[in-house]
């Protein structure tokens, strides 16, 4: 049995893993379906039925301009999925680059200097980074991805550094260096596999945090642009009327909460599933 299959079966065996995989699977499915179909087009509005309660025509009701809430949430799911995936990619690449610099043997690029720089930059809030980027580039999903990818990459590097340093000081790495292996080859072949368990768990957490960041930054006006469907946009446009029409805030808030919880539970289940000490099946498969 392949290692990936063993890991997925171990995740599914836990109640939290079932919840995480089910919610994430539905998220991906709805995102794909929304590319070709939504109950109503996003530009379809009905001013005579603004803030309508749930009905057969509008299962989740309508917003302030009479647009279908369900259609906007379905379309927004693909925006949030793209933001989460891009944030994971950017933070993963940036974090790994910092980890490589932290354990570098290069005399020009001192690892201690990189650690000091990371410790200094990690104190900058993600919101402040997004605000700084929105000034020259404007509000867009790219600003969210860049801000979150930068901030989460720093966190990832700081968390993964101990495992990377431990691997870099091991005898097999010393032997590889002695036999003339390049620094990049040593990092990819010998150090990165020791960092991957921590990396995968942190990236799943980063995906969940990026969804919260999108909602918060869009509410502040530095997230996705106006007219772009997203869960944060649905929250930002209806939160002003929460005391009068609470259902329009409930649905996007519920979707965001369920998805973020699923991503964090997936990270916890993944951590246990890929650890040979807590997963005997993984030891047998190896």
Automatic annotation (TrEMBL):
Superkingdom field: Bacteria
GO cellular component: plasma membrane
Keyword Cell membrane found: yes
InterPro entries linked: BP-dependent_transpt_permease, MetI-like, MetI-like_sf
KW Transmembrane helix (keyword) present: yes
Gene3D superfamilies: MetI-like (1.10.3720.10)
Boundaries of every ABC transmembrane type-1 domain copy: 77-267
Compartments, as annotated in UniProt: Cell membrane
Protein name: Peptide ABC transporter permease
Gene name linked to the record: gsiD_2
């Amino acid at each position: 049995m392949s290692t990936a299959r063993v890991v997925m079966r171990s995740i599914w065996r836990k109640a939290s893993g079932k919840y995480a995989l089910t919610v994430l699977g539905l998220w991906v499915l709805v995102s794909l379906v929304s590319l070709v179909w939504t109950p109503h087009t996003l530009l379809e509005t009905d001013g005579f039925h603004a803030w309508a309660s749930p009905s057969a025509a509008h299962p989740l009701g309508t917003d302030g301009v009479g647009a279908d809430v369900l259609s906007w949430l379905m379309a927004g799911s693909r925006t949030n999925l793209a933001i989460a995936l891009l944030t994971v990619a950017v933070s993963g690449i940036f974090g790994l680059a910092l980890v490589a610099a932290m354990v570098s043997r290069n005399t020009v690029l001192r690892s201690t200097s990189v650690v000091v720089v990371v410790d200094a930059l990690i104190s900058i809030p993600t919101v402040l980074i997004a605000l700084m980027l929105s000034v020259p580039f404007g509000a867009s999903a790219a600003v969210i991805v860049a801000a979150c990818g930068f901030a989460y990459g720093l966190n990832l590097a700081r968390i993964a550094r101990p495992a990377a340093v431990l691997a870099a000081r091991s005898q097999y790495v010393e032997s590889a260096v002695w036999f003339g292996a390049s620094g990049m080859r040593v990092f990819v072949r010998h150090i990165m596999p020791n960092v991957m368990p921590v990396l995968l768990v942190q990236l799943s957490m980063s995906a969940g945090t990026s969804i919260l960041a999108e909602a918060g930054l869009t509410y502040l006006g530095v997230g996705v642009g106006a007219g772009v469907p997203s869960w944060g946009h649905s929250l930002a446009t209806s939160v002003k009327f929460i005391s009068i029409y609470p259902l329009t805030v409930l649905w996007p808030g519920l979707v965001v909460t369920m998805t973020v919880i699923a991503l964090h539970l997936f990270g916890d289940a993944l951590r246990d599933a890929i650890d040979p000490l807590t997963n005997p099946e993984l030891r047998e498969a190896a």
